[in-house]
């Protein structure tokens, strides 16, 4: 939703050399957060090219995920996604306000399991604990998105998220050094500073 609203406020330009790439698979429902739609809108407002990662965000199993990302077309798309210069993303949480929870996760049971595993939210569909580590849960082995190790090598990594329900996920992302820039609201910024995140 944050990225959708961001692109709505952008002034159109003509930059045909710009390539806009998705770094994760898409949800099968919930058009307001569909990766394909957001990438298309960014490419349109920038006058550039859009490149889709035409896969689901979560495969049925870890084995299915491995088969999908091993295909040359998906391997190439992920390699190209890892080579971008600027990345802009939001983070998710596990509250009822989360559109990822509403549309992306298969059941309430999975949400409870993720919480029990220590998850506070996700980045690129990968669930983190409060210290920024990946939790030990099957969802993290089923996700089709850029690996965090590859993501960290992108020079400019902008995270744009806010609201009290995102506090813990933002804290986790900063602890894991997943952002080079953060765009958030004043209350979230004060909360993060109180956690000592000014050191990161």
Secondary-structure map:
Elements lengths: L1 H7 L10 E3 L13 H12 L2 E3 L10 H9 L1 H11 L3 E4 L2 E2 L5 H6 L3 H9 L2 E5 L2 E4 L9 H4 L5 H4 L4 E5 L6 H9 L5 E3 L2 H9 L6
Parallel strand pairs: 1-2, 3-7, 7-8
Antiparallel strand pairs: 4-5, 5-6
Order of helices and strands: HEHEHHEEHHEEHHEHEH
| Mean pLDDT over the full residue set | 89
Per DSSP E runs of 2 or more residues, the count of β-strands stands at 8
Distance between the termini: 26 Å
What portion of residues belong to β-strands? 5-15%
Q: Helix segment count? A: 10
Strand order, main sheet: write it out: 3-7-8
Radius of gyration, rounded? Answer: 16 Å
Core attributes:
single chain, 200 residues, alpha/beta, 3-stranded parallel sheet, 3-stranded antiparallel sheet, 14% strand
Written account of the structure:
This protein is α/β, with parallel strands linked by helices and 200 residues long. Helix content is 40%, strand content 14%. The chain contains 10 helices and 8 strands. The strands form 3 sheets. Strands 3-7-8 form a 3-stranded parallel beta sheet, with no helix packed on it. The radius of gyration is 16 Å and the shape is globular. The two termini are 26 Å apart. The mean pLDDT is 89.
